[in-house]
Design a protein that fits this description.
Blueprint (H helix, E strand, L loop, with lengths): L5 E4 L2 E4 L3 E5 L10 H8 L1 E2 L3 H12 L4 E5 L6 H11 L3 E5 L5 H14 L4 E5 L1 H5 L13 E3 L4 H12 L11 E5 L2 E4 L26 E2 L7 E4 L2 E2 L16 E2 L2 H15 L3 E4 L8 H14 L4 E6 L6 H9 L2 E9 L3 H7 L5 H13 L3 E8 L6 H14 L3 E6 L7 H9 L16 H4 L9 H16 L2 H13 L1 H16 L3
Parallel strand pairs: 3-5, 3-6, 6-7, 7-8, 12-15, 15-16, 16-17, 17-18, 18-19
Antiparallel strand pairs: 1-2, 4-11, 8-9, 9-10, 13-14
Length: 488
């Protein structure tokens, strides 16, 4: 073995990985959950955080691999992959819903490869420092905040024996049996300083959503951070940072020239926070005459006709909006910062310029009763989004909603047991208040979806869309089915 992890075996040169990054599965890939799996596979995003971590580590000379358990949840295949790559370090990310799966994976790794150093990061860890590292010997290091540069400093210390652990911001580690949390919460201020995401490390053809127009597709980051204070949202930073338009255009050109990618998902929390920036980006796209289409998430109150016209001309074909509810009282409670009239106007403008819409709405908002949920359904039927997602309001830890829920008795936080494999996250995290019980909330959630999707007008609209682009929808449905088949 050479100094850089090069192994010669049977005259074949093998370069060992310095780092393997793992994306744990969000749901249980049990074949018995066939309908849940099929729905889950209709929207299958690549792991953007890991792609940026991998790209920056590679920029600094490290050999990196990515293993996505959303594509393959089989433990034996993960073990075989690690055995083949022989990494010095393994990193895993964790959202709150995937935290238990992340710990299960780390336990499996330590049982089979006790000498491999393990790192965990992600939003759940950033909000709950020292949580995972206290779980016996599963975790060696935790990374808090936006960890692109923190990870490189830690790799320098582990692999190159350079630097000092005490000087790495946002690092949690063990020293003489004590858990040490360093100062700082790293935030990348200059997003142009980051290399383009390492999409060559994943099978791009296996990531898609049911409504994308072209294949393959990928994510792209225009900004980080969100200045708004929705009471249910957990985010790393309120500080909005924007990439330069030239930097974004260069990434798009690189993606379609090197990887034939023509469909992009801007995964910014709110794409249109800075309207001047959006206009400049769209004008640049139009001037460059880029052969692409794209989609994004946006805020309804920041949509205007000039902006949406430019977005359409620049290739935007779908906008996702957080509608949340059909009454202004609940919007004020959620601190959304807009009114129902803003929702109606945004969807009207989208339809005028033939941009598809995707609406997210919430059931189980304190103060709302069955009648209020019906008002939301009426609003949805009025604005007629092309795609729809229903969520129950969940008190994520460290949010304003969690504080209110604890204070008003809407949720018993002693019931939370993320380390219980049988803990049903979506159902168990539902609020309970005097107007509606948990049972009724879930019942109204199901009813609202059925009432919308089985509406004659919606079915006719769906049929028209199918006739207009049959290949698009047949291809995406078949892709979803194939991904489910691969689980068996």
């Amino acid at each position: 073995m050479g100094k850089k992890g090069i192994v010669i075996r049977n005259k074949i040169l093998i370069i060992q990985a310095d780092l393997v990054l793992i994306n744990p599965s969000l749901i249980d890939h049990n074949p018995r959950n066939i309908f849940s799996l099929l729905f889950h596979k209709l929207v299958n995003y690549c792991p953007p955080g890991l792609l940026y971590l991998a790209a920056n580590a590679r920029k600094h000379g490290y050999n990196v691999k990515i293993y996505d358990m959303e594509l393959n949840d089989k433990k034996k295949d993960l073990i075989a992959f690690i055995r083949k790559e022989k990494p010095k370090v393994i990193g895993i990310t964790a959202l709150t819903p995937s935290y238990i799966n992340a710990l299960i994976v780390l336990k499996l790794i330590k049982e089979n490869f006790p000498d491999i150093i393990t790192i965990i990061g992600g939003l759940h860890i950033s909000r709950n420092p020292k949580n995972a590292i206290a779980r016996k010997e599963l975790v060696d290091f935790e990374l808090l905040g936006e960890a692109e540069f923190t990870l490189v400093q830690l790799l320098d210390y582990i692999i190159k024996k350079e630097g000092n652990l005490d000087n790495i911001e946002g690092l949690v580690y063990k020293k003489n049996g004590e858990i040490i949390k360093n100062k700082g919460f790293p935030i990348v201020n200059d997003l142009d300083s980051l290399p383009f995401p390492a999409i060559d490390l994943i099978d791009r053809n296996r990531y898609f959503i049911s409504f994308q127009k072209r294949h393959p597709s990928t994510i792209i980051m225009g900004s980080r951070g969100c200045p708004y204070n929705c009471i249910f949202c957990d985010k790393l930073s309120n500080k909005v940072r924007l990439r330069s338009t030239d930097n974004i255009i260069n990434e798009i050109k690189t993606s379609y020239k090197q990887y034939n990618i023509r469909d992009f998902q801007f995964y910014d929390l709110s794409f249109n926070i800075n309207q001047k920036w959006v206009k400049n980006l769209c004008i640049k796209m139009i001037e460059e005459d880029l052969p692409i289409v794209w989609r994004c998430s946006a805020r309804v109150e920041l949509i205007n006709e000039e902006l949406i016209k430019l977005m359409k001309q620049a290739g935007c074909y779908l906008i996702a909006f957080g509608v949340e509810t059909g009454n202004n009282k609940s919007l004020r409670f959620l601190k959304k910062g807009f009114k129902v009239s803003d929702i109606i106007r945004a969807f009207k403008l989208s339809k005028k310029y033939k941009i598809e819409t995707h609406a997210y709405y919430i059931v189980g908002i304190p103060g709302e009763n069955k009648s209020d949920v019906l008002k939301t359904v009426i609003l949805l039927k009025s604005i007629r989004p092309d795609y729809l997602n229903s969520l129950t309001l969940r008190p994520l830890p460290h949010t304003e909603l969690a504080e209110l829920s604890s204070k008003n008795g809407w949720f018993d936080f002693s019931e939370i047991n993320l380390l219980n494999p049988n803990f049903k996250y979506q159902k168990k995290m539902t609020l309970k208040y005097k107007e509606m019980s948990t049972k009724n909330i879930l019942k109204m959630k199901r009813y609202s979806m059925i009432a919308y999707f089985l509406n004659i007008k919606y079915l006719f609209h769906l049929f028209q869309k199918f006739l207009k682009e049959p290949n698009r929808f047949l291809f995406n449905i078949w892709r979803s089915i194939k991904e489910v088949i691969k689980i068996f």
